[in-house]
Amino acid sequence: QVQLVESGGGLVERGGSLRLSCTASGFTFSRYFMKWYRQAPGKEREWVALVGEFGVATKHAASVRGRFTISRDNAKNMVFLQMNNLKPEDTAVYYCAAGNFSSDEFWGQGTQVTVSS
Fold first, then answer.
1. Is 112 helix (H, G, I), strand (E, B) or coil?
2. Confidence of residue 63 (pLDDT cuts 50, 70, 90)
C-alpha cells in the first residue's frame, strides 16, 4: 500500500521557519522524483519544488527560490522542505508527491502551514 505522510506544518510568524517532512512507503522511493506542492484557499495548486532520484538535482519555483530548500534521504524514504523567511502568502496546505519529472503518481494528504503577519 502506497503512502505519503506529511508532517511539520503549523502556525509561524512572518520571518519564521518550518521544516516539512514527508515519509514514503509502499513503493521504491529511490526511483522517483519527489515534489512539494501547495494550495492556498481559493487558489489552484502550485508546484513548489522538486528533487531528483539521487538528491542532487533540485528545482524551486521562483516564488520560493532562496527561501525554501528541498532535500531527500533515500535511506529513510523521506523528503524534506526547509522553509525560511516565511511570508503570509506562503500560507497553504503543502503536499508531497512522487512521480517523474513531468507527472505525479502518488500524493500525500497534506499539512497546513499558516504564516501570521
1. strand
2. very high
